[in-house]
Amino acid sequence: MATYLRRCLTIVLLILLLLHNTVLAAPNTVVSKIRTSQTAATVRIVLDVSEIPEYKVMTLENPNRLVIDIAGAVNKAGAQYVFTDPAVDKLRLAQSSPDTLRAVVDLKSVYQYKVFTLKNPNRLIIDIVKQVDQKVVEEVQPGITYTSWLKYGANGPVWAYILDIDPKAGFAVKPTLSNSVIQGLEPVLAMAERERAIAAVNGSYFGLDGSIIGLLKIDGEIVSTPELPRTALGIMPDGKILIDQVHYEGNVELPNGQTVQISAVNRERGENELVLYNGLYASSTRSNNYGMEYVVVSGKVTAVNSSNSQIPEGGVVLSAHGEEAKVLSCLQVGDAVKINQTVGPVWDKTLYALGAGPTLVKNGSVFLTTKLEEFPPDIAVGRAPRTAVGLKADGNILAVVVDGRQEHSIGMSLLELALFMQELGATDAMNLDGGGSSEMVIKGKVVNKPSDGRERRVGDALTIISSRVAN
Question: Rounded to whole angstroms, how far apart are CA atoms 15 and 306?
Fold first, then answer.
């Protein structure tokens, strides 16, 4: 009898336990109402609930969806809510299991979100933060406007920094060498401060020793030369701006009638080359003793050295190696030589020039010269931080920097940069050096976020100055 009673008691306890667990598993949160609000930046969805629930959030892509699983909840508020919003499509509610209510928010574009609960009354709140463009325009000085523009696209955010300069308001652009000479590197901010510039961006490609890769002219003197025709920005004495491909040619006429081609200006001398060094290179040529050098002042040879010649004020040094050195070996102190240099009849008239490339926009149309100018993949391919300069139909000058390789900005491809310059109103535009070099300075402050995490030391900069300072 006792055994029988114990068994009955056990059965009753098991039944009571099962009933208790069933009660615990039953949904205890009721979604009674859906409320929404919309602004230009945010869509808020409010679920009125009887109890504060536990929930889990998931994000899905292709298509974009935000999924919230609400534990122990049932829906009595309706199955669907449709939005009239450019970013949010609709909200759908359905039981994913007997004790879980699933809320699915279908999105039309990239977004951020925040999900949280509030009491008194009990609410589950879903905030969809739309990634809308953010643009701030301010006047640097009358005639110069600065725009900080965060743009969102299908691939991610891009942060651009734009200077729009009106030369008619008394401003000019000109290139500035690091440390005022070729040798050595310097941050853009330091160059801007030395030149008393209102603003500046980085300029040409450069070597680790400071040598400029591309055309550079300062005060009418050729400072560096391109190895092949590449795009450059030219500034005429009257301030007129040119953007075009430029080719350099130079030679030296010897007393015996022979002519020797100049291989380059102000860079390290290579094998079988004749390189011309002027006072903007350094105090001396810093060359090795495997060639011969001829110091020339006022068209006459004043000294002959084996290496590392001092560069005279107002003169040049012709540094030759190999076959070119054999041709120049006839020169002696006192001999007359004629040095000829040209970048074309129009560009010879420019006061300043800064080369980089490729061309982005020409005559109002996208015109990429990446292959024509033989740019390598590290410049030509993929998104990166970029710097560009352009001309508008009204005569204004655009200087643009785009951050890249960072969470806040993915950068631009050259095609995207060309389309962006066109969007800004550029009728002609060109690419400058990019990557970690991309930088914009305004009134003594770096306004963008260089991808190195700090300023990079570069070879030159394009400065924006008062015309009075320029003159």
Answer: 106
